[in-house]
Each structure stands twice: as structure tokens, then as C-alpha cells.
Amino acid sequence: MKPAVLIIDNSMYETGAFKAIVNESNHLSEKYFFHFFISKGSKNISVLKKCGFPVTEIGFLEISKSLRTVLYLPVLIRNAIIIRKYLKRNKISVLHVNDIYNLTGCVVKMLIPSIKLVYHVRLLKNSYIKLFYRFFCKMVKWKADSIICVSYAVLKDIGGTPKAKVVYDGIVYSELLPAWNRLREPASASFLYLANIVRGKGQEFALSAFAKLSNEYPDLKMSFVGAVTDMTFYDSLKSIVLKYKLEEKVWFKPQSDNVENTYKSHDISLMFSESESFSMVSLESLYYGIPLIASDCGGPAEITNNGAYCLLVENRNIENMYLAMKHAITNAAELKEKATGGKAYVRSVFNPAAGTLLQTDIYKPLL
User: Fold this and answer.
1) In the structure, what pLDDT confidence band is assigned to residue 365 with cuts at 50, 70 and 90?
2) Rounded to the nearest 10 degrees, what angle do helices 16-27 and 352-363 cross at?
3) What is the mean pLDDT of residues 49-67?
């Protein structure tokens, strides 16, 4: 009988972390039987059900995102008790929490010391949980049996512990469409910004840089693709569009199920997030051979071999972003060469065997 693993995931919308854990679970499903606990009302429930995973909804509460902080501890204890019952009833061997900020796993470990606890750390210390990062790290290093860091940048931030190792997120997509072959008319290039609309993802930097560049190249276009998870931030982006009269050049579009088509319908991919421990957008861009401009905010440097396969710009520096975008459209051949090299590079380093066999090694010694 296959060992059972329960994965806890907080995400309400599709994120790089969610996509990665589903990819890895699907890839390892012949060896392990996966269950999922996920936030009530999450848009990802249907994805998990299509994959055939048993899914339970639960009301997680994040201390760093909610004004209801006073409720955090009671909710944490309540959820831990619910999960403890589920673990025993379903004979779960491993509890795997898909990010550091959910301390439910640590409380469950206190209730069931024999459960094997794995934590996936997908955030850097300068991310939105920076005020609590050190506390979360201490708790996880205290209670977890194994800690998976998605990059060496994360491993450095959490501090030394023999429990931790780096396991890159593997990519298991297939390429169904013809190879990307765009950027033939750079002066009218289309930029893609694929990320959920939430503060910290850098859309405001991209818009400001694009506004300056479009004064010189009026035929440029930009598409923001992703779920709106922060309406106040979304409204501020729309205000920038109106301020610079970009209504005919900038579009906001919902998430698409056809990720490959989304990338290949554009000329250049942008990723100006303020903090990324890994960056699935950077990985996917290179996987599909799309020229990439990314901020030097953690994971993207590792994914692109320190900028060998993209234009790496200073974090939060709009002028650098503008100059890189201008360089991209005036040096199209260079960008295409980087994209071609990057495509081969990520398919070698981040293929399923390289990415998920390491994770198998993390489960196996615990059982």
C-alpha cells in the first residue's frame, strides 16, 4: 500500500507555489497517495478534483494578511485539531505544508509527535511576511522533520539547519504549439506581465517604465494577465493607465488555462516582482523560449543562471526597467539568443527527474 501524504495549501488563486506542488504531486502519485487541505472558497479546488486528489476545505487565517490577528491562535488550534483527526482517520504518514507562513503543521506536530512533518519554504525574508519571518523560521526549524527550500536564496535566508535542502520546482509541461518566433517588429512589440494582481508583484513598476518607453515607441503594447486579488491595488494600476493615456495600449486580462498560448502570443515577458524565492513565471518564460526581463529579487537570478538567459534589472528600479525594455526592442537578436539558450538550460536543470526525484528522497527517509 502506498504511503499517504497530506498537503496543506493556503492559496485562494492559482500561484506558482500551487502549480508547483500539484505538478510534483502528480509526478509522484505512483509512489504516494496525496490528500489536500485547502482554503475555503479557493479557486484551486476544481483543479485538485480534476487531478483526482481527495480535497478538504478549511478556514485558514494568515496572521500577516488579516486584521483579525486576535483570532489567529484560536483558528490555528481549531484547524490543527481538525487535521489531527483527518490524519488518524486516513492513516496519513507525512504532513507537507506548502509554505512557511502556515503554522498549522507545527501545532499538529505538537499534538501528534509521531507524524512526519515537511515544510516547503517559498518566501524570502524581504517578502510580505518580513515582520514575522524570523519567528516562522524558528517554529519550522524546531518542529519540521524536513525543510524544502525552493532556491539557495531561501536556504540562506532561513539560516543554517541540517534539516533543510534545496529542491527546485520541476516543470512538467509539454510544448504543444509551434516554437515561439516573434519579436519580428520590435518597435510594435507586445509585453506580457503574467502575475496575479496584488501588491508586491511589481505591476506598477512595469506600467511606469512602459509609459516612458511608449512615448518613444507609440506602437508598443502590454498585457497584464492574472487574477485580481487586491482590488485597491488594481484600481491604482488603472489610475496609472489613465494618467498616461495608455487605454489603447494596455490591457488587463483574466488567467488563462492555456499558459503556453499566453506566452507565445507575446514578444517579451516581464517579471518585476519585489521578492521571489523562485519565480515560476521566469521558469515558464524560458521553458517556452520567450525573451525575459526580470528583477534581481531572489530566485530569478538562479533560474536564469545569474542573468545569462535574460535581462536582469535592479529590484524596484523603474529607470533600469525602462532601459532594459528599450534595450530589448533595439537589440532583438540578442534577446532571441538569450531565449534560445534559456530554453535549453531550464529543460536540463528543472526537468521532472532533476526536480522531483530530490523531493522523493525527502519523503523516503521519513517513512
Assistant:
1) confident
2) 80
3) 80
Backbone angles phi, psi at 246, to 5 degrees: -105, 15
Q: Of 159, 72, 210, whose CA–CA distance to 202 is shortest?
A: 210
- Ranges of beta strands (E only) in 30-144 are 33-39, 55-58, 94-97, 116-121
| Per-residue cell: 266 | 507575446
> Taking CA 122 as the corner, what is the angle to CA 357 and CA 323, rounded to the nearest 5 degrees?
110
Residue 326's pLDDT band (boundaries 50, 70, 90)? very high
Instruction: Reply yes or no on whether the pLDDT at 41 is more than 70.
Output: yes
Q: What is the pLDDT of residues 124-183, one digit of tens each?
A: 998 877 888 999 999 999 999 999 999 999 999 999 899 999 988 877 678 999 999 999
**CA-to-CA separations, 170 to 22, 68, 279, 309, 338, in angstroms, rounded:** 11, 36, 12, 18, 21
Q: Give the separation between CA 102 and CA 172, rounded to whole angstroms.
A: 26
- Predicted confidence (pLDDT) at residue 364 exceeds the cutoff of 90: no
- CA-wise closest residue to 166 among 364, 354, 365, 304: 354
Could you give the CA distance from residue 335 to residue 184 in angstroms, rounded to a whole number? 12
DSSP string, 282-331: HHHHHHTT--EEEE-SBHHHHHTTTTTTSEEE-TT-HHHHHHHHHHHHH-
Q: Where are the beta strands (DSSP E) in the chain?
A: 4-9, 33-39, 55-58, 94-97, 116-121, 146-149, 164-166, 190-194, 221-225, 250-253, 268-271, 292-295, 311-313
Q: Which three cell numbers stand for residue 20?
A: 508547483
